[in-house]
Amino acid sequence: MKWLFPYPVLFAALLLFWLLLNDFTIGALIFGSIVAFVACHAMTALVPQKPRIRSYRLIPVLVWRVALDILQSNIAVTKIILSRHDRGRRAGFVAIPLQLTDRMGLAILACIITATPGTAWVDYHAASGELLIHVLDLKDAQEWRDSIKQRYEELLLEIFA
């Protein structure tokens, strides 16, 4: 039965939302069932590999570090926005060579960088292992490289096998 309905809860939720958005008719029920069935089977291609976590004890350290960095970055970006003087601020791109290759680790790093105000994950080139980020207030590119590698990549390398 799993091959017919690989995600039964998703199927039921999609069908319910379809019927809530449309009038409840036999045609809507049949068409909604078809849409939900196709969507559930499309989801089977997106099943990610299970993460291999090597060190659970470092996860709270990473979470705490990210929370502090996001708070500090919020304050810094607020100061930039509210300041009337430019004072030589400029945005820019920073290329960072990464050793991290684990897909889950890279996804978490992308979430961290994007969630931190003033930075955005732009591109990752898997063949070279190079990450490109955008920084709102770029003073020293090497400082950003060192910060990302030391604050996040080292922990992620230790957390994921």
Automatic annotation (TrEMBL):
<dbReference type="InterPro" id="IPR002758">
    <property type="entry name" value="Cation_antiport_E"/>
</dbReference>
<feature type="transmembrane region" description="Helical">
    <location>
        <begin position="5"/>
        <end position="21"/>
    </location>
</feature>
<keyword id="KW-1003">Cell membrane</keyword>
<protein>
    <submittedName>
        <fullName>Multicomponent K+:H+ antiporter subunit E</fullName>
    </submittedName>
</protein>
<dbReference type="GO" id="GO:0008324">
    <property type="term" value="F:monoatomic cation transmembrane transporter activity"/>
</dbReference>
<comment type="similarity">
    <text>Belongs to the CPA3 antiporters (TC 2.A.63) subunit E family.</text>
</comment>
<dbReference type="GO" id="GO:0005886">
    <property type="term" value="C:plasma membrane"/>
</dbReference>
<dbReference type="Pfam" id="PF01899">
    <property type="entry name" value="MNHE"/>
</dbReference>
<feature type="transmembrane region" description="Helical">
    <location>
        <begin position="27"/>
        <end position="47"/>
    </location>
</feature>
<keyword id="KW-0472">Membrane</keyword>
<keyword id="KW-0812">Transmembrane</keyword>
<keyword id="KW-1133">Transmembrane helix</keyword>
